[in-house]
Structures are given as structure tokens and as C-alpha cells.
Specification:
Layout lengths: L12 E6 L2 E6 L4 E8 L2 H15 L4 E7 L3 E7 L2 E8 L2 E8 L1 H5 L8 H26 L6 E6 L5 E5 L1
Antiparallel strand pairs: 1-7, 2-3, 4-5, 5-6, 6-7, 8-9
Length: about 160
């Protein structure tokens, strides 16, 4: 069975991009050129984290996994952001942090009141994401996912 780069389940938005490679200096051309060697994961993650937190300082670092391949590395604003990489293609994804909604369940006397409060909070977070996701993922999203074959492999097109 084939496979492709993963992302958060129930993601509000997913962007795909080439995983950075290390550049080396070419003495003949006098320029930095990419190699086939991938950049260190922690260095890439630090760069993405700093980029997002410079625009949205309330995000805090975290280190959780969804499954074995999707690393959740930032949380805040009622959301969580994750990265995944497979064979040179990376994904960034964002979704509602369900744990933020869980705290509401103890604040009300009836189930209906709790459901209404959770729905209102969910709508507020979704509105925030739709207004800010392009800024959060600015500079990423080089590819669009076209579809997935029955064997699990996906097809992407360059934007």
C-alpha cells in the first residue's frame, strides 16, 4: 500500500510544501545551491515556530503527537498547529484544540447549555482561523493536493 504526507485529523486548513534541503556553497558559481540532504528537522521546526510566533505571540510551544507522524508543536487561540514530513514533502495543518472546549462542560447545569457554549466557542475559533490562516501559513503552501489513489498515494500540483 502506498502513502503520502500526513496531517492533523479534522484539520481546518492544510498546506503542503517542499521540505527544505541543506544548501552548500559552490566555489565555481559563487552561489549557494541546494543539495539532496534534508535540513535538520528541529532547525526547520524552530524556523516555522519563530515565524508563526512573531505574528501571533500568544501561541505557546508544545510537543505532542497525533499518531506516529504528525507532530503538534504550537497551541493557542483555541487551536493547535502540526507538521508532518514524508519523502521531501511537508505539511502544516491547523485545527480546533478540542481540549479548549472541554473546560466548558463543568460551567453549566444542563447538557443543552454546555452544547450551546461549546458551539459558540467552536464558531468563534473557526472565525478566527478563517481570518488568520493565510497569515499563519504565509510562505508555505507551494502545492495543492489534487487527490488520493485507492492505494493511499496522493497527487499534488504546484501552485
Amino acid at each position: 500500500m502506498g502513502r503520502s504526507v500526513n496531517h492533523l485529523n479534522d484539520a481546518f486548513e492544510v498546506v503542503f510544501f517542499d521540505y527544505p534541503t541543506i544548501e552548500s556553497y559552490n566555489d565555481e558559481t559563487g552561489q549557494w545551491e541546494p543539495t539532496d540532504e534534508p535540513e535538520d528537522f528541529d532547525c526547520v521546526l524552530d524556523g516555522i515556530r519563530e515565524s508563526i510566533k512573531s505574528e501571533f505571540p500568544e501561541y505557546t510551544d508544545c510537543k505532542r503527537w497525533e499518531g506516529r507522524e504528525v507532530r503538534i508543536f504550537l497551541e493557542g487561540y483555541g487551536t493547535e498547529i502540526a507538521i508532518s514530513e514524508y519523502c521531501g514533502l511537508a505539511s502544516l495543518s491547523i485545527r480546533i484544540d478540542e481540549s479548549v472546549l472541554e473546560y466548558l462542560s463543568g460551567d453549566f447545569e444542563t447538557w443543552e447549555e454546555t452544547e450551546e457554549a461549546e458551539q459558540a466557542e467552536r464558531e468563534r475559533i473557526e472565525k478566527w482561523m478563517s481570518e488568520n490562516v493565510s497569515r499563519i501559513f504565509a510562505g508555505y503552501g507551494e502545492y495543492t493536493k489534487v487527490g488520493t489513489f485507492s492505494n493511499g498515494e496522493s497527487i499534488y500540483t504546484k501552485k
